Amino acid sequence: MDDIEAQPAADGLLGGDAAHSGPAVMDVEGSSDAMYLTKLRGVVPDGSVPPADEQAKLVEELEAEDITAGEQMYIISKKWWGDWCAYTNFRASAWDSNNAADDSEAGTCPQSIDNSDITGIDADDDLRPGLEEDRDFVIVRGKSWHLLSEWYGGGPAIRRSAVLEGLVPNNKRPRVNPYPMKLEVCWGGKPDDVKPIKAEQSETVASLKERACKAFGLDTDKVEIWDFFHRSKYAKLEDKLDQTLDECRVLEGQDILLDDKAAPLVAEEKSSSSPIITNFGRSPLNRMSSLHAEDYTVQRTDAKPGLAGLSNLGNTCFMNSSLQCLMHTVPIMSVFLSGQYEHDLNKTNPLGMKGQLAIAFGSLMNMVWKSDVGTVCPKGFKARIAQFAPQFSGYQQHDSQEFLAFLLDGLHEDINRIQHKPYIEETDSEGVPDEELAARAWQNYRLRNDSHIVDHFQVSMTVHCDILPAAVSMVCLPHLMHCGHDILAPG
């Protein structure tokens, strides 16, 4: 595909091995990268490679710059990167102290860039499955890659686009998805003829449509593009050609339909705006509108309330398992299914999500506990999570405990009854018994934190020691939901 490029680079100025020789990757003439490289070459008048310390300095300056949306980033094998870091003593703040390869010899100039240990067999731009950033590879900016490629040669070049994500416009975080999405594209004329097409979340719908039409030999003016999620006309994308796939909530592995305008495919159109009904006889929330319109249910007449599954959106089992546990916890059920949380929505809390996370969770929970629901697709909820917490963006595996801790924290702040948190001044603890200190800390914490989440998930407790019966400790655990506990076997 056009925006995911993998091609071997030319042998660098230091000379590379023949296995990595090939056409140069310096396809940036006329771009800002090309002008920058021209400027950098002036550092070494004769065109030779800068000394090791100068290389590290140049790359460090480039990596320190802010990443912009759509910027081209490159993936490099951690093994080769570690060798280069050891040679140049590169220690940019963005990489901490773990760059040097354990088996690399300090001061030894590395060979040409070799990404063969992280690429697949079929295509150079396909990473091997199961790789992790910082363990198997690193991601550098395009300018850094072009310099390293010019100095050392080798490859292949593995390019991805950066996406900026986050709820606050001026505080968005860059993210690079190393694994491009694989979409199943079909044409309405032959819906069973499916072609797999790779795409990045930063790609526009128009770009995807053009490439898909080319793959089927279709005229772009004669077809419309649809989100064909679960093989139904879920959402019409033709009116969103300028939006990115990420903005349109297109997921890994889902179906895309090219529908003939003259003879449209007759397929079920999913309704995502059906009313939300609770088991407590309350009226549905009427303000959900488009915020959660992409969460929808799959009906099953014999399904009992609460026994609904959550569709896996890529590798989101970490999220689904945590949600199922939380949505079947009795205190949470009573608060969110009865609508009690609505009275506590805190839309001014700077530490919260303006009540939006609580509303999204309440909406999803009501769907799960609705009668005759077999499956709930949490597509909209997942999108909201990506806005609130960019670390959970994409559709890769994450840690369930980290997600659950974030969710509990976010729900707490969104329904915190304390609208204006008071300033608590620290007092002298010298000579004060532990029991009194713990009680004081808990009291001060509750002055700033008062929610249903705190009531049921955060506690203070007294710890007794069986070995030393006289040893009693009063412990305040305001952050119990972040604690990990070792469970010891008897004996």
- Shape descriptor: flat
Terminal CA distance = 59 Å
Q: In terms of quaternary structure, what is this? A: single chain
Mean pLDDT comes to 74
Quick tags:
16% strand, 27% helix, 5-stranded mixed β-sheet, disordered N terminus, 16 strands, single chain, 4-stranded antiparallel β-sheet, flat, 491 residues, alpha+beta, disordered C terminus
In words, what does this structure look like?
The chain has 491 residues and is α+β, with helices and mostly antiparallel strands. It contains twelve helices and 16 strands. A hairpin with a 2-residue loop joins strand 7 and strand 8. The chain is flat and about 70 Å long.
What layout of secondary structure does this protein have?
Elements: H1 32-41, H2 52-63, E1 72-77, H3 78-88, E2 113-114, E3 137-141, H4 142-152, E4 154-155, E5 159-165, E6 173-176, E7 181-187, E8 190-199, H5 205-216, E9 223-227, E10 235-236, E11 255-260, E12 296-299, E13 309-310, H6 317-327, H7 330-337, H8 356-368, E14 373-377, H9 379-388, H10 400-414, H11 434-448, H12 452-457, E15 459-464, E16 472-477
Parallel strand pairs: 2-4, 7-11, 13-14
Antiparallel strand pairs: 1-3, 1-5, 5-6, 7-8, 9-10, 9-11, 12-14, 15-16
Helix pairs in contact: 1-4, 6-10, 8-9, 8-10
